[in-house]
């Protein structure tokens, strides 16, 4: 299981949703899957094209979490058991424009 390391922007983004109980529950579920099994099919992880090391995981149809694996295999695939830096929680379009 990877250790998840949230950055300041991630924590700030999470604070913005403090009054949205249903969305916070979905975020918690996505984070749990990310910690227990990063390649879980429900997360629909994918690379962020305009950032060479950032990836995204689905929270719901609108929101995604961006993260950065700390280790990569020689093939370029993340080492999923290594630490993951949590970068942002934004709606899909905004996240793909500014993943950090």
How would you describe the overall organization of this protein?
This protein is of the alpha+beta class and 100 residues long. It is built from 3 helices and 5 strands; from the N terminus they run βααββββα. It has helices at residues 8-16, 21-36, 92-97; strands at 4-6, 46-47, 55-58, 63-69, 84-91. It has a 5-stranded mixed beta sheet with strand order 1-5-4-3-2. Strand 2 and strand 3 form a beta hairpin. It is globular, with a radius of gyration of 13 Å.
Rg, Cα atoms, Å: 13 Å
Order of helices and strands: EHHEEEEH
Instruction: Write down the overall mean pLDDT.
Output: 93
Sheet with the most strands: spatial strand order: 1-5-4-3-2
Largest sheet: 5 strands, mixed
List unreliable stretches of 5+ residues.
none
User: Tally the helices: what do you get?
Assistant: 3
Q: What is the terminal-to-terminal distance?
A: 23 Å
Strand content: 15-25%
The 3D shape can be described as globular
What is the number of beta strands?
A: 5
The proportion of residues forming helix, as a percent range, comes to: 25-40%
**Which structural class matches the secondary elements?**
alpha+beta
